[in-house]
Amino acid sequence: MSSPHTPSPAPNATVIRVGRRSAMTGLPCSIVLMVIGAVGIFGIVLVAMGKQKGEATVTGFVGLGFAVALGVLGVILFVPFWANRRSRILIDHTGLWLEKGDLRNVIPWHSLAGVALYWSEFGRNGKIYSLELYPNGPIDRDDPILWGLVRDEEPLHPGLPHVRHRIVLTAPNQGPVVEAVLSHVPQIWLGESQRPAGHIGRPDLRGHRERTRGRTR
Question: 124 or 185: whose pLDDT is higher?
Fold first, then answer.
């Protein structure tokens, strides 16, 4: 869908720092969980060394184990938040650009048959959004930047392809993204549509591994 060798975004491109927004909330939460885990590990070490006063109870061990589990969860959450902290979306007359660290690629407007905004309920009062980019031709399912955005689902309207790119957006950044898209390609805008809860889905990790493994043989 796009070449691995792309020019740079225009100087006046709209920039949405999606990684920074997520990191500002996700990193502190993950650090708190890691601290709780460290306390749990420290408690287990004290018990193992026999330095804890009094008798260790089953409830105490369960509590320490739960703390360690929270710490592990904190590490699991910290890694992607940190890795994606510099991720950006840039939108200009050429298309929609995605940057992750030193990697960058563009989904050109001329390669799209339509663009839509999906949203679904998240929690009690929240919403989670996604920008759906329907191609007018085949796409590379294993592009280093874009493969994780590929979804294969029923399209919004008959005639649109099943395979498309889905970019997850939060409430604060969906407005600027939609506004920028409409300023450049209003003719392919398909509107907004509510989807069932959990519509974001997951990348085809297994398929990605199988296809990339086959290419290296």
Answer: 185
Asked whether the beta carbons of 27 and 81 are under 8 A apart, the reply is yes
* Phi/psi at 113 (5° precision): -90, -20
Q: From 156, 147, 141, 135, select the one nearest 199 (Cα to Cα).
A: 156
Alpha carbon separation from 211 to 104, 140, 205, 206 (Å, rounded):
22, 11, 10, 9
The torsion region of residue 102 among left (phi > 0), alpha (psi -120 to 50) and beta comes to alpha
- What's the confidence (pLDDT) of residue 3? 41
**Using CA atoms, how far apart are residues 132 and 142, in angstroms rounded to an integer?**
18
Q: Which residue has the tokens 């360690």?
A: 68
Q: Are 169 and 31 in contact (CB under 8 A)?
A: no
Q: Spell out the residues 6+ positions from residue 35 whose beta carbon is closer than 8 angstroms to its own.
A: 71, 74
Spatial contact of 165 and 203, defined as CB atoms under 8 Å apart: no
Q: 140 burial class (0-12, 13-18, 19+ CB within 10 angstroms)?
A: middle
CA dihedral 5, 87, 156, 122 (to 10 degrees): 170
Cα–Cα distance for residue pair 109/151, rounded to 1 Å: 19
Chain-centre distance for alpha carbon 113:
23
pTM (2 d.p.): 0.70
**CA 17, 20, 23 angle in degrees (round to 5)?**
150
Query: Residue 107 and residue 185: Cα distance in Å, rounded?
Result: 13
pLDDT given at position 139 = 92
Q: Degrees (nearest 5) of the Cα angle 174, 121, 32?
A: 80
